[in-house]
Amino acid sequence: MEEREAFWKAIEKLVRDSNIVIDRPKGTAHPRFPDFIYKIDYGYLENTSSMDQGGIDVWVGTDSRKQIDAIMCIVDLMKRDSEIKILIGCTEEEKEIVCQTHNETEYMKGILIRR
Question: In CATH, what number is assigned to the domain containing residue 17?
Fold first, then answer.
């Protein structure tokens, strides 16, 4: 198996073996920035860890197939860190929303990496 496909298979396994916790449902405000409203369900994979010491972040869209075919790779200049966010079941429109979300300010920049 080539490295690229092995990477996506590993992400699929990580998601499959984890409980997805949606702690910021679509339509809710960010806990520290009340002007920011989530346009897509946002959460994390329970019992995983990322750069911010929390669980690995996920965006969960409305596509019922729940495919994992993209990630966001982001750099946060305020926190001075970087991390990935896994997109699960996101439509093309939802992928664009996620990408825009991570590029709205001068402090956070991200790229959408497709499978």
Answer: 3.90.80.10
